[in-house]
Design goal:
The structure holds three protein chains of three kinds.
Chain A: H1 9-41, H2 49-56, H3 65-99, H4 111-130, H5 135-159, H6 163-186, H7 190-200, H8 209-228, H9 230-236, H10 240-245, H11 250-272, H12 278-290, H13 295-319, H14 328-346
Chain B: E1 6-15, E2 18-28, E3 33-37, H1 44-51, E4 59-64, E5 67-68, H2 74-78, E6 81-84, H3 96-101, H4 116-128, H5 144-157, E7 162-166, H6 174-191, E8 194-198, H7 202-208, E9 211-216, E10 219-224, H8 226-229, H9 234-239, E11 246-247, E12 252-253, E13 264-267, H10 273-283, E14 287-292, H11 297-305, E15 308-311, H12 320-332, E16 335-338, H13 350-360, E17 363-364
Parallel strand pairs in B: 3-8, 3-9, 6-7, 7-8, 13-14, 13-16, 14-15, 16-17
Antiparallel strand pairs in B: 1-2, 1-4, 4-5, 9-10, 11-12
Chain C: H1 2-48, E1 70-73, E2 82-87, E3 92-96, E4 100-105, H2 115-118, E5 120-123, E6 129-131, H3 137-142, E7 149-152, H4 162-169, E8 174-175, H5 184-190, E9 194-197, H6 205-213, E10 218-220, H7 229-233, H8 235-243, H9 246-262, E11 271-278, E12 284-287, H10 292-299, E13 302-304, E14 318-321, H11 323-330, E15 335-338, H12 349-355, H13 363-366, E16 370-373, H14 384-395, E17 408-410
Chain lengths: 351, 371, 412
C-alpha cells in the first residue's frame, strides 16, 4: 500500500458532510438541555437555580409552592412542548416528502379543521345540554375529529392515486369541516365562540402528567416507526415510480405515511390544540442546515429541532407578558416566519 | 422453459382494466436492445409501465427468464429489472451519489445502510458512466445529459438483467443522445443486460436496436429487426408521414417538398448539390436537378427533395439523350444554379450545360442570387 | 414485515385510547363520587333526624354528616340554584344545583372524617381568593370583602367597580391571567384558598382540573342560571356564608327586595320592551323569554316583546336572529333597550341607525324611546332590584318626565 495515496475528493466531501451532521446534532442536544433548564428556571415566580436543584432532587417538601410549581406546572409543560414540537416536525416532514411539496404541513389534510369541528360540536351541544364535561372529553373529541378526517383521507387515497389530487382532496375536506364549524357557530353563544377560538390557537397551559404520559407513548412509538421507515421514505424521495422500481410497496407506504403523520398531528391537536407553523418551518430549516434530506439523518435531527423550537416558543408564550399568556401559535408564527424568510433570502442563488 | 429472456404472451395493456393495446406477443433475447417506436399516445409508455409493474396488466403474462412477473413481489422484480423514465426527477438536497446509491436498495438491509461492498459498486458504476466527479454535486444542478448518465448509473447499480427506459433521450441534445445510446449498447453487448426502451428518434432506433416494435392503433404493427421494419412504406404509415419524408437508407427525416412548377435547375453532382438543395427547400423553391449518377449522394437527397431528377445510368458517361433531356428541363426553369460539381470523365458534359445556361443568362453561382 | 407493522400501529392506537380513558376514568370516578354523595344524602336523611334536638325541624334534604348536628336551612326567596344548610359549630354545607357540594369549615375547626370524599372542603378564613367570575365581584364589594380577594381574572382597567379597579391599581389585588389561562405560578406562590370561576370555566375543563390538582378548590358561580332576577342577587347570601358575613348579606338583599316590593302592586303599563344588541355579523342577539332580563322587565311594569322565544332546554340565554325576523316582531315595541354589556355603548340614535337603517322604521325610534344600558351591567348583579327600578323609571318616563336611572340612559 503506497503511503502517499491521496484520499479521493469524494471521500473528504463525505467526511465533511458527516461531521456536519454530527455537529448539528450535538448543537441541538445542547440547545435542548439549555432551553429545558432555562424553562425550568423561568416563570412568573422567581425560583433560583439552587432552589430548582433542591426541588428536583427531592430535598424539598411536596406541599411547598415551589415543589408544586416546578413539578406540576413547569415540568409537564416542558415535556409536553418538547414531545409535541417533535411530533409536529415529524408529521410535517412526512407529509412534505410524501406530497413532494414544501408547503405541506401537518394540517394540510384538514386534520385541525376536523378536530375543531368535533370540539365545536361538543362545546356547543354537549355543554349546552349537560352543563359539564371533563377535559378528557374535549381531548377525545379532538382526537376523534382528527382521526375521522384521517380515515376519510385514507379511503380517498385508494381511489385517488395521484398525490397532487389527494392533496387537493385533503384541503377540500378541511374546508368542509370549517364550513360545518361555522354553521354550528352561528347558533352558538358568544361564550362558546370565544372559547372555541381560544382552543383553536393552541396552548400548553394547564397540562398535566397524565397528558404527558399518554403523549409520550404515542409520539415515541410513532417516532420509532417513522425512523424504521427511513429506507422506503428515502427511496420515495425520487418519486413513486422509481421507489417502486427498487422494491418499495407504494400502497403500504402511502397508508403508513398518512396514518403516522395523522396520529402525530391528532396527538398534538388533542393535547394542545392546533399549533401552526412548526410542522412547516422546522423540517425546512433542518434540511437546509443539514444540506441533506436523507431520512435516516433528518428524522432524529428534526424531532430534536422541533422539540427545541416548541419549548422555546412555549417559554416565550408564558413569560413574555406574564401573567397574561400568549397563545403558542402566535409565538411560533411571529418568531419563526422571519427566520424562514431570512434563510430563503440567503440561499436564493440556488433558485 | 423458453429460450427468451423477456417474453410476453397475449399481453393486453391499458388503464382501469380497459385494453389500449392487446395481443402483444414478444420474445426478447438476453442482451438484446429492443426499441418501441410509434406516434405519441400510441401506448409505448403504457407497454413499458406494464412491463415494470407500475401498471396492472389487463390480460396476458410477462415472463422474465421463465418467471412470471405477476407472481413476483416488487422487491424480487427490483433485483432483476431497473428503470429509467423520461420525466425530470425533482429531488431535494440529494447528491448524485445519493441518487446512484438508491440503486442498491434491493440489496441493503432494513435501514438502507450501504456496506463497503455497496459503496464500491456505486463508485464503480459512476466510473463506468464517467460521472464520478459529479458525485457530491446536487442532482438538480447538473446538466440534462449528466443527469441521464447518473440515472443510468443508478439503474446499473441495481445489477439488473433488464433495463427498461421510457424515452431516455427526450431532453438531451445530440451529443448526449449518442452518448447514452452508446453506453446502452455497451451494457447490452458487454454485460448481456437486456435493454427495452422507447424512442422518438426513429433514425436512432434504426441504428441502435436489435429489434424494433412498432406500436400503432390497438396492436403491435410490426416486430422484428430494423432491416425488416424500416422498409418501404412502413415508417410513413406508422407516423402518418407524407411523401419523401423519411429516408430509410440513411435514417433521415425530411421536411415536405415545395409545391408547384420547378423554378430552378441545379447542376450538381458528387455531393455539391446537397447544400443547394437544402437551401432551396428551406426557401420553399421547387427545383430540378441533374445530371447525377444514381450512386451519387446528391441523387439520394434529390430523390426526396427535387421535383425532377435527371440521372444517367450508373457509372456511365452522359449520353446524348440524357443531355438533351437535361437541357430541355433546364430551359424550362427560370434560374440555373451551378453547384460547383467536380467534373470528371463521366460527367464531363455538364460543363456544356453550364455554358448553355451562361449563354441563356439564367446562370447563377451559389452565393450570387438574383431574385 | 407488514403484519408486524400493523400490529405496532394497533398497539399505538390501543395505548392512545387506554391512556385517555384512564384520565377519563379519573374524572368518572369523581362524578360517581358526587352522584353517590347525592344518593347518600337522600338516604342519610332518614337517619339525620337527631333525637336530641326537638326544636329544629329536620330538613330531609340536608346532608347527614357524621359528627355534625344539623341546625337549620337558609331561607331563600328567589334563588333556585343553591341551598345552604347550617350545622352546629358554624359549619355549613352549600349545595349548588349541579350537585357540587361545599362544606364550609369554620376557622380552627376540624374537618369531619369522611367529609373530603363527599364535599369540597373550604376551610375558613378564605383570605386569598382568585376571582375569575367577574359577575361575582359586586357581591364581594357589597359585602365589603374585597380584601379577601388576592387575584383577579380581569385587568385593572376592565373593572367598572371603582373599588375593584382601585384595589388592583394599588397592588392589593393582582392580575393573575384570564380564566382560560391563569398564572398558576403566581397563584401558588402566594397561596390561594379558593378559585371563584364563572360558567366559562366549563368550556375549559382542564383549567378546573389543574386548579384542583394543585389543591385549590373551585367554586363555580352559577348565578347566571337563576331564572329569577332577584335570584341572582340572592347569591350574595351564598358568598356571605363563605366569608362569614351572613347578616350583612341579609340587609343588602332586603334593600333589593324592597325595590321589587314597591312595584308589586304596580299595574302593568302594558308597554312593550325589546332588549338586544347587534353582533359582528349584523345579526340581532336578544334574550329568551324565560331569561331574567325579560322577567325584570315584567317586574318593572312592562312587557317583554317576545312572549315565547327560545328553547328552555339549552343553557344559553340568548337567541340570535336576523334583522328581518326581529323587525317583524319588534317594530311596534314601545321601548328599545340596547344591551351594551357585550357590545360598545351607543352615544346616539344615529349610531343605532348606522348599524342598520331599518331601525328608523321602529316605533320606539320614531317616538324617541331608545335607551342603552351601561357597559358593565353584568358586573352589577348585586343590585338587580335597582335595575328593575331603573327599568320602571324608563317605562314611566315617556310622558315627558326627566328621569336619571343609574344603569340605563336615553339615546337622542
Amino acid at each position: 500500500m503506497n503511503a502517499d495515496i491521496k484520499t479521493p475528493a469524494w471521500m473528504t466531501d463525505r467526511l465533511k458532510a458527516r461531521s456536519r451532521y454530527l455537529w448539528i446534532l450535538l448543537f441541538l442536544i445542547a440547545a435542548f438541555f439549555f432551553i429545558a433548564v432555562v424553562n425550568i428556571c423561568s416563570g412568573s415566580v422567581a425560583i433560583t437555580p439552587e432552589e430548582v436543584f433542591e426541588v428536583l432532587f427531592g430535598r424539598v417538601g411536596e406541599e411547598t409552592a415551589q415543589y408544586r410549581i416546578i413539578w406540576q406546572i413547569r415540568l409537564p409543560r416542558i415535556f409536553l412542548s418538547a414531545l409535541l414540537g417533535g411530533a409536529l416536525a415529524l408529521s410535517g416532514f412526512l407529509l412534505q416528502t410524501f406530497f413532494r411539496n414544501p408547503i405541506a404541513g401537518p394540517y394540510v389534510l384538514g386534520i385541525s379543521s376536523g378536530a375543531k369541528m368535533v370540539v365545536a360540536l361538543v362545546m356547543i351541544y354537549f355543554l349546552g345540554r349537560f352543563r359539564e364535561v371533563s377535559s378528557s372529553v374535549l381531548i377525545l373529541a379532538a382526537l376523534f375529529g382528527s382521526l375521522m378526517v384521517t380515515g376519510f383521507i385514507l379511503l380517498l387515497s385508494r381511489k385517488l392515486r395521484q398525490m397532487p389530487i389527494l392533496l387537493i382532496a385533503g384541503i377540500m375536506v378541511g374546508y368542509i369541516c370549517s364550513a360545518v364549524t361555522d354553521f354550528v357557530v352561528t347558533f352558538a353563544d358568544d361564550s362558546d365562540i370565544v372559547n372555541l377560538h381560544n382552543w383553536s390557537l393552541g396552548s400548553f397551559s394547564s397540562v398535566g402528567w397524565s397528558n404527558v404520559h399518554t403523549a409520550f407513548w404515542i409520539v415515541s412509538v410513532a417516532f420509532l416507526l417513522t425512523f424504521l421507515l427511513s429506507k422506503p421514505i428515502g427511496a420515495f424521495q425520487m418519486g413513486e415510480a422509481y421507489a417502486q422500481s427498487v422494491g418499495v410497496n407504494i400502497r403500504l407506504l402511502r397508508v403508513a405515511v398518512i396514518l403516522l403523520s395523522s396520529i402525530l398531528t391528532a396527538c398534538v391537536t388533542a393535547f394542545a390544540g392546533p399549533i401552526s407553523f412548526v410542522g412547516i418551518a422546522v423540517p425546512f430549516l433542518i434540511k437546509k442546515v443539514l444540506h441533506t434530506a436523507k431520512p435516516i439523518i433528518v428524522i432524529p435531527t428534526l424531532f430534536l429541532g422541533g422539540a427545541v423550537f416548541c419549548m422555546l416558543c412555549d417559554l416565550i408564550a408564558r413569560t413574555a407578558f406574564a401573567p397574561t399568556e400568549l397563545n403558542v401559535s402566535t409565538v411560533t408564527a411571529v418568531f419563526g416566519a422571519p427566520i424562514v424568510i431570512l434563510i430563503m433570502l440567503k440561499k436564493r442563488q440556488e433558485y | 422453459m423458453s429460450e427468451w429472456h423477456l417474453e410476453t404472451k397475449n399481453l393486453s395493456v391499458g388503464y382501469n382494466g380497459k385494453a389500449l393495446i392487446h395481443d402483444i406477443a414478444l420474445g426478447i433475447g438476453k442482451g438484446e436492445i429492443v426499441t418501441l417506436i410509434g406516434p405519441n399516445g400510441a401506448g409505448k409508455s403504457t407497454i413499458l409501465k406494464s412491463l415494470f409493474k407500475q401498471l396492472r396488466l389487463v390480460a396476458g403474462t410477462v415472463w422474465i427468464g421463465g418467471d412470471d412477473v405477476a407472481q413476483m413481489t416488487y422487491k424480487e422484480l427490483s433485483t432483476r429489472m431497473a428503470i429509467m423514465l423520461t420525466e425530470r426527477v425533482r429531488t431535494e438536497l440529494m447528491t448524485c451519489r445519493d441518487i446512484v446509491a438508491t440503486g442498491r436498495y434491493p440489496y441493503t438491509g432494513r435501514m438502507g445502510l450501504l456496506t463497503a461492498e455497496d459503496e464500491k459498486i456505486v463508485q464503480n458504476a459512476m466510473e463506468i458512466m464517467r460521472v464520478e466527479d459529479l458525485a457530491e454535486k446536487d442532482f438538480n444542478r447538473i446538466s440534462d445529459g449528466q443527469r441521464q448518465r447518473i440515472l443510468l448509473s443508478r439503474a446499473f447499480c441495481q445489477q439488473p438483467e433488464i433495463i427498461v427506459l421510457d424515452e431516455p433521450t427526450a431532453y438531451l441534445d445530440i451529443r448526449y443522445k449518442l452518448e447514452l445510446l452508446d453506453i446502452l449498447r455497451h451494457m447490452a453487448h458487454e454485460r448481456q443486460i437486456t435493454v427495452v426502451m422507447s424512442l422518438h428518434e426513429i433514425d436512432l432506433a434504426q441504428k441502435v436496436s436489435d429489434k424494433v416494435i412498432c406500436v400503432k392503433g390497438d396492436t403491435i404493427f410490426r416486430y422484428g429487426p430494423p432491416e425488416e421494419i424500416f422498409r418501404d412504406e412502413a415508417v410513413r404509415w406508422l407516423y402518418d408521414l407524407g411523401e419523401g419524408a423519411y429516408d430509410v437508407s440513411f435514417g433521415s427525416v425530411e421536411l415536405p417538398t415545395a409545391e408547384g412548377e420547378p423554378e430552378v435547375f441545379v447542376i450538381a453532382g458528387g455531393g455539391s448539390g446537397i447544400p443547394v438543395y437544402r437551401r432551396l427547400q428551406r426557401q420553399g423553391v421547387p427545383f430540378c436537378t441533374g445530371i447525377l449518377d444514381p450512386g451519387d449522394v446528391d441523387y439520394r437527397l434529390a430523390k426526396h427533395l427535387a421535383a425532377r431528377v435527371i440521372a444517367e445510368k450508373p457509372f456511365c458517361a452522359i449520353r446524348d439523350e440524357t443531355f438533351r433531356e437535361a437541357l430541355e428541363t433546364m430551359r424550362h426553369c427560370r434560374r440555373v444554379i451551378d453547384a460547383g460539381a467536380p467534373v470528371g470523365e463521366s460527367n464531363r458534359r455538364i460543363t456544356e450545360l453550364i455554358e448553355a445556361a451562361k449563354a441563356d443568362g439564367t446562370l447563377e453561382t451559389p452565393g450570387e442570387e438574383r431574385i | 414485515m407488514k403484519i408486524k407493522f400493523a400490529a405496532l400501529l394497533l398497539a399505538l392506537l390501543t395505548v392512545l385510547f387506554s391512556g385517555c380513558s384512564a384520565a377519563e376514568a379519573g374524572t368518572a370516578a369523581a362524578d360517581t363520587a358526587a352522584a353517590e354523595t347525592a344518593e347518600s344524602e337522600s338516604s342519610g336523611a332518614a337517619v339525620s333526624v337527631p333525637a336530641e334536638s326537638e326544636e329544629t325541624s329536620a330538613d330531609p334534604d340536608a346532608p347527614f354528616i357524621d359528627g355534625l348536628v344539623y341546625v337549620s336551612t337558609m331561607e331563600l326567596d328567589d334563588a333556585k340554584c343553591f341551598d345552604v344548610y347550617f350545622y352546629e359549630g358554624g359549619y355549613a354545607v352549600i349545595r349548588i344545583s349541579d350537585a357540587r357540594s361545599y362544606l364550609v369549615v369554620p376557622e380552627g375547626a376540624e374537618v369531619p372524617s369522611g367529609a373530603e370524599s363527599r364535599f369540597i372542603v373550604l376551610q375558613q378564613p378564605l383570605k386569598h381568593i382568585y376571582l375569575a367570575a367577574t359577575a361575582a365581584m359586586c357581591q364581594f364589594d357589597a359585602l365589603d370583602a374585597l380584601s379577601d380577594i388576592r387575584f383577579s381574572g380581569l385587568e385593572a382597567d376592565g373593572w367598572y367597580l371603582e373599588n375593584a379597579a382601585r384595589a388592583m391599581e394599588e397592588g392589593e389585588i393582582l392580575y393573575a391571567g384570564k380564566y382560560s389561562a391563569p398564572d398558576y405560578e403566581l397563584i401558588l406562590s402566594e397561596g390561594c384558598d379558593l378559585a371563584v370561576e364563572s360558567t366559562m370555566i366549563l368550556h375549559s375543563p382542564k383549567v378546573q382540573e389543574k386548579l384542583e390538582e394543585l389543591g385549590i378548590p373551585v367554586w363555580i358561580d352559577l348565578s347566571s342560571y337563576e331564572p329569577e332576577p332577584l335570584g341572582r342577587t340572592e347569591w350574595i347570601k351564598a358568598y356571605a356564608v363563605l366569608l362569614g358575613k351572613e347578616d350583612a348579606a341579609e340587609e343588602i338583599f332586603a334593600v333589593q327586595k324592597q325595590y321589587a316590593a314597591e312595584l308589586e302592586n304596580f299595574v302593568n303599563t302594558e308597554k312593550t320592551v325589546a332588549f338586544f344588541y347587534i353582533n359582528s355579523n349584523g345579526a340581532i342577539v336578544t334574550k329568551k323569554s324565560g331569561d331574567y332580563i325579560p322577567k325584570m322587565i315584567e317586574m318593572a311594569g312592562g312587557r317583554y316583546i317576545f312572549s315565547d322565544l327560545g328553547d328552555s332546554e339549552t343553557a344559553s340565554s340568548s337567541v340570535t336572529m336576523d334583522m328581518e325576523t326581529f323587525y317583524a316582531s319588534a317594530r311596534d315595541a314601545d321601548f328599545l333597550i340596547y344591551n351594551a354589556s357585550i357590545d360598545e355603548p351607543l352615544e346616539s340614535v344615529d349610531e343605532l341607525l348606522a348599524k342598520n337603517e331599518l331601525f328608523a322604521d321602529f316605533k320606539a325610534v320614531r317616538e324617541g324611546n331608545v335607551w342603552c344600558t351601561t357597559k358593565y351591567l353584568y358586573q352589577a348583579s348585586d343590585v338587580n332590584g335597582e335595575i328593575v327600578h331603573d327599568i320602571h323609571l324608563m317605562l314611566t318616563s315617556d310622558d315627558g318626565t326627566e328621569v336619571q336611572p343609574t344603569f340605563l340612559y336615553k339615546l337622542y
